[in-house]
Specification:
Length: 345
């Protein structure tokens, strides 16, 4: 089969590799159709690592995936050949301490597709995953929207971790696919006062389309003063979705006393810092968001319900052979790109 492998910084090669085979009776062999490129994929492409987790070349990335069932193991009962499937890329063991506590996202034996040293990603013609990670896609909305289930699931999980039904005013700093997903889910949850930031004009427009009542560029204006002028009592929560130290500092400035900072973005650097005096005086809570936990089916249902307008987020589609062009487009944030999708014929 044909596979797209990272072979170095900003290097992708197509290679013919052996097709994967079913090894366990609960395995499913899938023919990959669509793969969305995520921000973490771009980290590997540009820097070779996310935090301190580096890939060993060659390596296949990609975890937002739509596929069809090609073959099933002997004990597979839920899916059959021909079914259209959306893959939950987090393969949890279901047996460790974290899984038993309902935390599959921090599974001690987690295999995440495209993650260094765990599971190879989806940018290949075929892939094998357990039946439990296969979710039906029968909805009438366009097929490419199915790959948005994974980022939308992160938005659902982040709102769950906010755990504050009284929160009415929030900030979302970073208006890429994850930030926009948080905004869309927040609107569905009834939050109307949403303030968003980004350094790219097209993404600010997307932020407004996703429900932001105000969107600003931190390179062009003092967003802290802009938000304070509109919300003198400040914000109940800020979702940091860009992995940027400056955004974290700005979030602390605009949070009210007792507010909550939720960190979703992945910084390039291994360390970030906080002004402890401001955190302490305001008694701000900090919540890290590790992907999602038990929210994938809810995300699929929401995406398939047509309650969300996701067309504006999927801005570019590329044939498998043009994959390097897709990564370079995203690397330069060119042509108003938000989400690029790879089509594997």
């Amino acid at each position: 089969m044909k596979s797209a492998l990272l072979t170095g910084i900003r290097k992708i090669e197509f290679r013919e590799v052996p097709a994967p085979r079913i090894k366990k009776d609960t395995d499913v062999l899938l023919k990959v159709s669509l793969v969305g490129i995520c921000g973490s994929d771009m980290h590997y492409y540009l820097y070779n690592h996310v935090g301190n987790e580096a890939i060993r070349y060659p390596w296949v990335v990609g975890h937002e995936c739509l596929a069809s069932v090609e073959e099933i193991g002997k004990k597979v009962t839920r899916v059959k050949p021909g079914d259209v499937i959306v893959i939950d890329p987090a393969l949890a063991c279901s047996e460790c301490d974290q899984c038993r506590k309902g935390r599959p996202n921090t599974c001690l034996n987690l295999v995440f597709l495209g993650y260094p040293g765990q599971g190879e990603g989806c940018l290949s013609e075929y892939i094998v995953v357990p039946e439990m990670n296969c979710h039906f896609w029968k909805q009438s909305v366009p097929l490419e929207q199915a790959i948005m289930a994974e980022p939308i699931s992160i938005g659902i999980y982040a709102l769950k971790l906010l755990n504050n039904p009284e929160a009415k005013k929030i900030g979302i700093f970073g208006s890429g696919p994850i930030g926009l997903s948080v905004a869309l889910v927040a609107r569905q949850a009834g939050i109307k006062s949403i303030y968003m930031t980004d350094k790219i004009n097209e993404r600010l427009e997307a932020a407004r389309r996703s429900g932001a009542i105000w969107a600003g560029n931190p390179d062009k204006s003092d967003i802290v003063e802009e938000i304070r002028a509109r919300e003198p009592l400040l914000l109940d929560a800020v979702f940091e979705c860009c992995g940027d130290q400056a955004a974290i500092d700005q979030a602390i400035e605009v949070l009210r006393p007792g507010g909550k900072l939720l960190i979703i973005g992945i910084p390039v650097a291994a360390r970030i810092s906080f002004d402890i005096n401001k955190l302490r005086r305001k008694e701000i809570s900090i919540q890290n968001v590790r992907r999602q936990s038990n929210c994938f089916q809810a995300a699929l249902d929401l995406v398939g319900s047509s309650k969300l307008d996701l067309n504006f987020m999927i801005t570019h589609k590329f044939h498998f052979e043009k994959i390097r062009e897709a990564f370079e487009l995203l690397a330069g944030y060119r042509d108003g790109v938000i989400k690029a999708v790879i089509q594997i014929p």
